[in-house]
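4.2 Preliminary Data

To establish feasibility before requesting continued support, the project team ran the inverse folding procedure on a target of 352 residues. The structure was first converted into the token representation described in Section 3, and no sequence information of any kind was made available to the design step. The complete token record follows.
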């Protein structure tokens, strides 16, 4: 009979722990329905009448429906102890001890147990047995375990992604906070004006009007709005000085387009906000200019075939031919030189 030598099988530690005598193992297997033993008791093989199941998706779907997940064993629990426990509830085909992926392959405290049929597996899961050696057990069908596991993994991925995004956003905020330059400014230069005419008025008119009272550096105004901010140059409190000049010229009133203006000098948080906004707009403008310059350099780089400014080799060659001396051009040059000499002689003759 073809088969495997029992002496070879005894190299497996678990079998050797049962017995190291081939004859003893052979005698025990003679009563097995799954295995066959040779006449001399030296070899074993699988019973041909009990073939291996087909390795197909359909088969494993059936296996999963009769496999249970159990968690709660001590990490030093032995396989024999688990087998003796689960066999109390029905015929067991397989027990898989789940182990860590590390080199030590330590037992994780959970197992997959495959019973002979689905009814036995479900009866165990729904049964009253909920402990092993005083430890509470978690029991469920394998399909339920994988469903819960997938949901748990999805939630972990979403949480990790949210944490990563929050961390990135916090880093960006912190980076902006660190990179934000402290705006240094001279206090009292910004005048806030109200009651500007909403019709027949624009930025140029507002700026021109206030120029008569001081050195206007910058104006924040939108056409149709009744408010404006005028920044004056000079030393501290320049806006107050300009407003004083305006009121003195108007006998206590500042009239513009038929409206009496109301003016206040920005200070405190309002003044800081003005300068922060101004600084941000300035930085954004510089960034746009830098971007446009980069794009312009890219567009003006090497063209096709390595020619600069999109000049092809053919175009370059044509340009060279245009500047090259041809026989006709040489003859024309000689003629022009002769005419030049004649003209020169005539000039000298006249001068004599």
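Position-by-position output of the design step:
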């Amino acid at each position: 009979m073809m088969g495997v030598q029992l002496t070879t099988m005894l190299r497996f530690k678990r079998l050797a722990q049962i017995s190291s005598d081939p004859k003893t193992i052979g005698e025990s297997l003679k009563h097995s329905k799954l295995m066959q033993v040779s006449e001399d008791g030296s070899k074993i093989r699988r019973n041909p009448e009990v073939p291996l199941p087909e390795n197909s998706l359909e088969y494993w779907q059936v296996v999963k429906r009769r496999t249970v997940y159990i968690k709660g064993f001590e990490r030093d629990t032995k396989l024999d102890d688990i087998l003796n426990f689960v066999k109390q509830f029905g015929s067991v085909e397989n027990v898989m001890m789940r182990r860590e992926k590390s080199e030590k392959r330590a037992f994780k405290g959970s197992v997959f147990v495959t019973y002979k049929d689905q009814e036995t597996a479900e009866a165990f899961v729904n049964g009253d047995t909920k402990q092993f050696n005083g430890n509470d057990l978690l029991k469920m069908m394998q399909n339920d375990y994988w469903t819960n596991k997938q949901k748990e993994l999805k939630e972990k991925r979403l949480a990790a992604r949210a944490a990563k995004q929050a961390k990135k956003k916090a880093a960006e905020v912190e980076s902006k906070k660190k990179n934000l330059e402290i705006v240094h400014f001279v206090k009292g230069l910004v005048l806030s004006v109200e009651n500007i005419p909403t019709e027949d008025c624009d930025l140029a008119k507002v700026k021109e009007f206030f120029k008569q009272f001081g050195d206007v550096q910058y104006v924040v105004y939108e056409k149709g709005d009744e408010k404006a901010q005028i920044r004056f140059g000079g030393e501290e409190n320049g806006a107050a000085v300009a407003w004083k000049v305006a009121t003195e010229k108007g006998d206590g009133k500042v009239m513009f387009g038929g409206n009496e203006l109301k003016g206040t000098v920005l200070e405190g948080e309002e003044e800081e906000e003005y300068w922060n906004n101004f600084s941000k707009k300035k930085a954004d403008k510089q960034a746009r200019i830098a971007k446009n310059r980069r794009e312009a350099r890219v567009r003006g780089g090497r063209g096709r075939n390595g020619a600069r400014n999109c000049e092809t080799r053919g175009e370059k060659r044509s340009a060279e031919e245009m500047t090259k001396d041809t026989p006709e051009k040489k003859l024309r040059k000689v003629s022009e030189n002769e005419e030049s000499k004649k003209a020169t002689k005539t000039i000298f003759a006249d001068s004599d």
